[in-house]
Amino acid sequence: MLRYIVRRVLWGVVLLFLVSAVIFLIFYVFPNADPAKLRAGRQANPRLISQIREQLGLSDPIWEQFLRYMTQVFTPFDWFGASQHGGTGPLNFGNSFQSNTPVKEIILDRLPATGLLVAGAVVFWLLMGLPVGIISAIKRRSALDRTTMVTSLAFISAPVFWLGLVALYLFASDVGLIHIFPGIGSYLDADTFLAKCWSLFLPWLVLAAATAAIYARYLRSSMIDVMSEDYIRTARAKGVGERTVIMRHEVRSAITPIVTLLGLDIGLLLAGNAILTESVFNIPGVGREIVVAINRSDLPVIQGIVLFGAFFIVTFNLIVDIAYAYLDPRVRYQ
Amino acid sequence: MRLTRLRLVLPALLLLALAGVLSACGSSSSSSSGGTEAAGIPSEFKAPTSAPDSAEKGGTLTQLNEGDIDYMDPGAAYYQVTYSVTLATQRTLMGWPPNATQPAPDLADGQPQVTDGGKTITFKIRPGVKYSPPVDREVKSEDVKYAIERSLLPGVPNGYTPAYLADLEGFKQAEQAVKNNKTAAPDISGIETPDDQTLVLHLTRSSSIPVIQALSLPVSAPVPEEYAKKYDAASPSTYGQYVTFTGPYMVQNDCDVKVDTSNHTAEAQNSNCSGKLTGYKPGKSIDLVRNPNWTGDKEGDYRPAYLDQIQIQEGFSDPTSASQKILSGEDQVSGDFPPSKTVVQQVATTSKYNKDQMVAVPSGGNRYIALNMTKPPFGPGSGLSAEQALNVRKAVIANSDRTALRNTRGGELFGPVATHFIPPLIPGFDEAGGLQGPQGSEFDFVQNPNGDADLAKSYMEKAGFKSGKCEGSVCNVTMVGDDAPPGKDTATVFQHQLEQLGFHVTFQPVAHDIMYTKFCSVPANQPQVCPNVGWIKDFNDPQSILQVPFSGDSINPSNNSNWPQLDDPKINKAISDAVTITDENERAKVWGGIDDQITAQAPAVPWVWDNDVLVRSDDVNGVANLFNGEWDLAYTSLSNP
After folding, report:
1. How many of the other CB atoms lie within 10 Å of CB of A272?
2. Cβ of B447: how many Cβ atoms within 10 Å?
3. B153 exposure class (CB count in 10 Å sphere: 0-12, 13-18, 19+)
4. How far is residue A235's CA from residue B326's CA, in Å, rounded to a whole number?
5. Rounded distance between C-alpha atoms, residue B244 and residue B86, angstroms
6. Where are the alpha helices (DSSP H) in B255-401?
7. Which of B158, B283, B556 minimises the CB distance to A292?
8. Who is most buried in A299, B303, B410, B501, counting CB within 10 A?
9. Nearest CA to CA, how far is A172 from chain B (Å)?
10. Are A175 and B325 inside 8 Å of each other by CB?
């Protein structure tokens, strides 16, 4: 197992390197606003723009800029002029073109909000999605099954930003029809952990709704497959109690694809995929930050967040693979 | 400066209904430039520009913003919304009390003395003005000299210093010196500091008026060299993370300033601090607290500074919900976004909110559709002479329903239909024709705000198109505009208006910044039509409105802001000569005449003089500042602090 983990970690590093290269290329191949011109501001003359370009290292060859960035992120060395452009590494993601703030500082400042949003949403969607999936599978073709599946389809089809706005206009304490939950921007006002949790209640529900629906449908389908397996019939024939059959044999086997999904979903959300929820509710997280950075062509911030995201995805995939071995005795790694 | 604010998101259908509603709210016929009447703002939506007598000290105010300020560093700050922060936190040589139409002395101890035929300006600095912690020392004239000099550093990107202060003696040499050393502020020999309280500026020509006006901008906020030098030596400068302040408020820093809400004073709790700003989180929030070293009118500061603390929260991308939060009293004032049309309609036509919770302020800016004068059919070529191209441009303007264009932004409250380029409240506005625009047959093409199809037809005939409509391949035009409302709506409406005249329009929508940096501001890539451009004053002088966007001398191969590429030698010379006029009446008259000359060349379709629309909660005594068109945080107060 240890050998497997080491191998996966090494592959993860290679993957992060490749992701960085792709992001870098995307920014130079596709048209985008010139960061030097944006930083120079209005009325800036060409002399100032060219000086800023030089200062930010944008006038260097692309390969040199790329290797400098990789040096700063992955090594402690002062290669390719790293010390003159943002400093040496490792784990140095450079400074924002716009605010000149270290990218690492920006990400670490935004990560707690995203982390809390994702953690709460995960709890909600598991609490909603798993029981619904199990009950629907057991009560297949019943009115309850049909109702929950149609409802879940509705939540899957509803865009998150629309669901968020509807939730706000129905239930937010400031702009809602029924004043129940804290509204837009309430996270910014929250001082304590509990206040932050309360301010995220509505975003948790919104973010969890679609995912819970997907999990419910996925688990239902997976359980229905498992329920027709021979070993389930054997267990029942041996007189094993129905609760034990369901929980120990059916759910445990059916839930493995859910674990894969969960790992990917958490990684993706931490990587900034909660963009819409964060934007609608004005939660100062990683997702909203990447939108701002894209609007400002703030390349170091975009690269930093994408790399962080890739790191989370790789890490959670690794955790999933290890969890697989525990959940499914058929899986063994040598 | 280029207009970059005001983003609205709701469908255009509401606009037309709303325009009618708002038209009934008041008259726009006044032509005085002395107040907001000039901007045609209905009386119930006029903004207060002074605090009520009952205003009290205390309380915390929350302002909601969509985006962030551009730079905390006063050497680089250039957005109107950033000025909200600098007006409350910095003392510049000249300042802008809320109702001022001309700059008033702030850090300067009285009006500057102008001698030598307008070529020498002497400022006296007020004694006793101190920096916020950790600098804590008194401001000296050398600090203003350093502040101006450091604005030439590429690490302190300032767009306007070269435009307005280039007449300082030794300026060019200083620019040259920066090329050799990009991390040390160069010496500008034309700035002298004979003693701690005196600052003397020597100019190469009599351009004292724009120089004094430019010194009302944040670049003249003092910067202590011994403190800032190490930050300016970084590449780019990191002073923006360690700014020190001289105004009534400061951004919270690691000196941990605590405000005593009972006597409205403040004190730093940590004496062993670096000055690192902890209250500014870009894109997230700005926390302002009272500056412990500010003692108000003892140092001649005109700002009352009623509030104890100010929290600016950023990231409110939905103007409808953000405005409703404010109007309902959950938060207090709006920042960089106008209320959505839904909210404007709610306030204007229902009793849900008080009407005076929404106000409009003239922004001192204009919006126009640039017609590229270097490419046919709007410039000579493909068989069209310069005279014929001029007639084509006049036809396009004559045909254009500018009221419909304005409605794409929200109707009458968002500004009067423009008939020329100098906006209301700027000297030269009346001289250029006021709201009605220049009169006479040579200006007939701008006189009907709803468009005049017959007149347009006659101009097309003069241009050689006998049918009165554009014909042939010369009529294929490309237009690059915004890919999101309201800019996209404006472009779409104008596309339809061009097609009415027979043009075949290819509309390429792109993101706003890309529209500028890749197309409309790059002459080599510029399409025939740029529908979403505009200019806002840098200060209340017509030079800051007309020089950069319409002088041929300001055309750059990139980052060009003369979008029509108007390059008329007579206009160029008139602009260059008018810079040095020092008599204010004469200056207004001459610049008004230059505006007429520009309008006569029909380089663009002027369609609105922008108003900024602001909202406040009912418990706020909001005071708007006419200079930047935002709530003035140093004058605004809470009714029950």
Report:
1. 25
2. 17
3. buried
4. 63
5. 11
6. 319-327, 341-349, 386-399
7. B283
8. B410
9. 10
10. yes
Residues of A in contact with B159 (CB under 8 A): 40-44, 48
Consecutive 10-residue runs of chain B (641 residues): their mean pLDDT? 42 38 36 49 90 96 92 91 96 96 95 95 97 97 98 88 93 92 93 98 94 96 97 89 97 97 95 95 93 91 97 90 92 92 88 93 95 96 95 97 93 92 95 94 95 96 95 95 90 97 95 84 93 93 94 87 96 95 94 97 97 95 95 96 89
The alpha-carbon gap from A20 to the nearest alpha carbon of chain B, in Å, equals 24
ipTM summary value: 0.76
| Residue B471 token pair | 């014909």
Query: Whole-model pTM?
Result: 0.84
Q: In chain A, positions 26-55, which contact chain B (CB-CB < 8 Å)?
A: 31-34, 37-49, 51-52, 54-55
Q: Give the chain B residue whose CA is nearest to the CA of A189.
A: B313
Query: How near does any CA of chain B get to the CA of A316, in Å?
Result: 28
Gap between the Cα atoms of B252 and B457, Å rounded: 62
Give the sign of the dihedral formed by CA B421, CA B426, CA B431, CA B434: positive
Q: Which two tokens stand for residue A48?
A: 């100032």
B548 to chain A: which residues are within 8 Å by CB? 43
A48, A283, A301: which to substitute to probe chain B, counting the most B Cβ within 10 Å?
A48
From chain B, the residues in CB contact with A183 under 8 A are 321, 325, 330
- Residue B339, preceding peptide bond in cis (omega within 30° of 0): no
Whether A292 and chain B come into contact, CB under 8 Å, resolves to: yes
What domains can you pick out in chain A, each with its CATH number? Answer: 2-74 (no CATH), 103-333 (1.10.3720.10)
CA distance B370 to B235: 37
B157–A279 CB contact, under 8 Å:
no
Give the pair of three-digit tokens for residue A3. Answer: 């050998």
Residue B346 has phi, psi (to 5 degrees) of -60, -45
pLDDT tens-place values along chain A, 334 residues long: 677 778 878 888 888 888 878 877 777 666 566 777 777 766 677 777 887 887 778 888 888 888 888 888 888 888 888 887 777 878 888 888 878 888 998 999 999 999 999 999 999 999 999 999 999 999 988 999 999 899 988 988 888 889 998 999 899 888 888 989 998 888 988 889 999 999 999 999 999 998 899 999 999 999 999 998 899 999 999 988 988 999 888 988 888 888 888 888 888 888 777 888 998 899 999 998 988 888 777 888 888 888 888 888 888 887 887 777 666 666 655 4
Residue with tokens 């993101």: B511
Cα dist from B6 to A195, B501, B613, B631, whole Å: 33, 30, 9, 15
Encoded tokens for A129? 């999605």
∠ Cα A167 A171 A175 (to 5°): 95
CB atoms near residue B509 (< 10 Å): 16
**How far, in Å, CA of B627 to CA of B84, rounded?**
10
Q: Tokens for B32, please give them.
A: 């005085």
